[in-house]
Amino acid sequence: WSNFAFVRLHHIITSHCMMLVLTGVLRRFIGDGISSVGRVGEIGRNIAQKSFHTSTTQNAKFNFGAFKLKLKPIPKNVFKLPVHRFPKRPPKDWPLLLRPVIFIPSFIAITYLLSRIERAPVSGRLRLKPLPRWLADALIESREEMVPMYDEDAVYSHNSRETKMATRILEKLIQAHLQFMTEGDSRKVSGYRSPEDFNIRLVVVEDPTANASCSGSGLIIINTGLFKAFKYNEDDIALVLSHEVGHYVAEHVAESIGFEILNMGILSVIKMFAGVGNGMISQAFNELLFNLPLSRAQEKEADYIGLIMAAYTCYDISEAHKVWRPMLESEARLMAEAEGRELSEDDIELVVFASTLTKYIGTHPSYPDREKWFKTDGKWMEEARAIQKARCPQVKEERKQRLFLGFIPY
After folding, report:
1. What is the CA 39 to chain-centroid distance, rounded?
2. How far apart are CA 316 and CA 267, in angstroms?
3. Backbone phi, then psi, for 138, in 5-degree steps?
4. Residues 64-109: pLDDT tens digits?
5. CA-CA distance, 175 to 238, in Å (whole number)?
6. Is residue 250 a contact partner of residue 137, using CB atoms and an 8 Å limit?
7. How far apart are CA 121 and CA 194, in angstroms?
8. Is the model more confident about 126 or about 88?
């Protein structure tokens, strides 16, 4: 009887353990449908009697009531594993820069701008050119159609001395650029437009100002005052025209238009989120911090391109550091004539002083800075002289011959 009682006790304890596990599983997936410990005990008793009780005598039945267990409720989340490391939050509670309405357009814009980084031709300057060439050319053409570039009544004929000289210089410069595209360093030729897209035109107009300009579409306008200021010296005039061609090949106008549009977009975004951005103060800061520094950087780059390509074309650049002096004197002379007096050294010094004052608020570098860049022992001149020494051994002798004979090319 003792052996039989021990076996029955073993079966009872085993059935209770099985029911405890079953209760936990059912509570996990079903809930609190089985909440009573007494009910669990009743189910266990029935299972034990049907499975293990073999005696037909009532006295042989075991008293299960003495072994009822009182268990604490099992927590509902005892079997729940963590799925999210961070609590879920709706998009409106995300950080501002990570919200889809801001992050996705910003990611697209930054990716596009990174794809527009390239090197400028000749100088190799790494720059951002926001607009593709086809779009920039279309905008430039529409601008030039709305704004007249020159007075048609003041245009010189193709047979004039000035037009012939300028045409001859430009033809040499264009051929030099096309040749540089095939011989130059790959980093300095990657930004060139294709030779078929070169579209440089020339117009000489009657204007006493010693100046020249180049539009974004390649139209070079030369004032007759430039020829008079340089006394029709082809080498010096070639440096000025090479500077203007440098603006065209480097696509400075397209670069400036792209930054204008980019700055307008940035100011609009700032105004949308911060409530400021399009006022006069913000536009003044935009002009001082972006547009004017960009213009001065482009002028400096055009000076460098003009010097290198003038040397590449075998023009004499030994007096390049003096090329700005006649233009400065011409400006001072016009100022003195407007006041009804003769040109004096004080007028020249006043023009130099004015250009120095506007060094950081002007579109062009100051005259002293430009003379410093072109000084004979400077880095630019050393590079230009190395080009001429390799390509143009006859330049120095031709310069001496012209000075000796007093010959002025036309």
Report:
1. 76
2. 47
3. -65, -40
4. 444 455 555 655 555 555 555 555 555 566 676 677 777 888 889 9
5. 14
6. no
7. 12
8. 126
Cα 96 vs. chain centroid, distance in angstroms? 23
Torsion of CA 207, 208, 211, 213, to 10 degrees: -10
- DSSP letter, residue 97: G
Q: What is the pLDDT of residues 195-210, one digit of tens each?
A: 888 899 999 999 999 9
**CA angle in degrees (0–180, nearest 5) for 200-217-113:** 125
The letter for the amino acid at 351 is: V
The 8-class DSSP code of residue 92 comes to: G
Find all residues with CB under 8 Å of 55, minimum gap 6, and list them: 61
Give Cβ neighbours of residue 228 (< 8 Å, ≥ 6 apart). 208, 210, 330
Residue 12 corresponds to which amino acid?
I
The token duo for 277 is 């951005």
d(CA 217, CA 137): 7
Beta bridge partners of 213: 221
Cα separation values, 313 from 11, 146, 178, 309, 316, Å: 109, 36, 11, 6, 9
**CA 186 remoteness from chain centre:** 21
pTM to 2 decimal places: 0.73
Instruction: For residue 373, give the amino acid letter.
Output: W
